[in-house]
Amino acid sequence: MNIVLVLLRLLHIVGAVSWLALGGIMTLYVAPAAVAAGETGYHYLKQLFTRTAFTKAIAPAAGITTLAGILLYIVGNASSHFTQTGNIVLGIGAAAGLIAAIHGGAVVGRAITAFNKVLATLPDGTQSIPSAMLTELNGMATTLLGHARISLALMIVALVCMGSARYL
């Protein structure tokens, strides 16, 4: 096997696992718990989003995964490695992955940017959040989590399809 293909597969797999793990943890656990915690949760999210690279790591993982996947498609010659059914399932997975990347960047990315702008205006420490701002944050969080779940579902479809294509 060509070393370029091995490196592309490695980048694709590691990037996909990172993308899915970061997005899944944020979508299924961290963000819902923080929103349910109310003011304290929003203060936590402010610290998480402004003082760590947690949310900033998702876009590069998605980009590396997508770029490596496109390059694998161009140079990989999948028809010689998979059956016809496997190629169909691989194509479905690729489409789901591309849609997840586009939706994640265009919709979820914009929603996170807007959410971060509002979080940045929160009072520091344990000061109370004004009720109007809390209402705005709750609405934004609901919208953001809804879109994040769509992207996560698409990533899971891509992972299952691409992971199972070899065995079909």
Provide a descriptive summary of the structure in words.
The chain is mostly helical. The protein has one domain (3-167). The protein has helices at residues 3-36, 39-51, 58-75, 84-120, 131-164. Helix 1 packs antiparallel against helix 2 (39-51), helix 1 packs antiparallel against helix 3 and helix 3 (58-75) runs antiparallel to helix 4 (84-120). The longest helix is centred in the middle third of the chain and has 37 residues, at 84-120. The two termini are 21 Å apart.
Shape: elongated
Number of helices: 5
Binned strand content:
under 5%
| Computed structural class | mainly alpha
- Name the helicity range: over 70%
Question: First CA to last CA: what distance?
Answer: 21 Å
List the secondary-structure elements in sequence, H or E.
HHHHH
Question: What do the pLDDT scores average to?
Answer: 90
Keywords summarizing the entry:
single chain; 168 residues; mainly alpha
Briefly say what this structure is:
With 168 residues, this protein is an all-alpha fold. It has helices at residues 3-36, 39-51, 58-75, 84-120, 131-164. The chain is elongated, with a radius of gyration of 19 Å.
Secondary structure layout plus pairing:
Blueprint: H1 3-36, H2 39-51, H3 58-75, H4 84-120, H5 131-164
Helix pairs in contact: 1-2, 1-3, 1-5, 3-4, 4-5
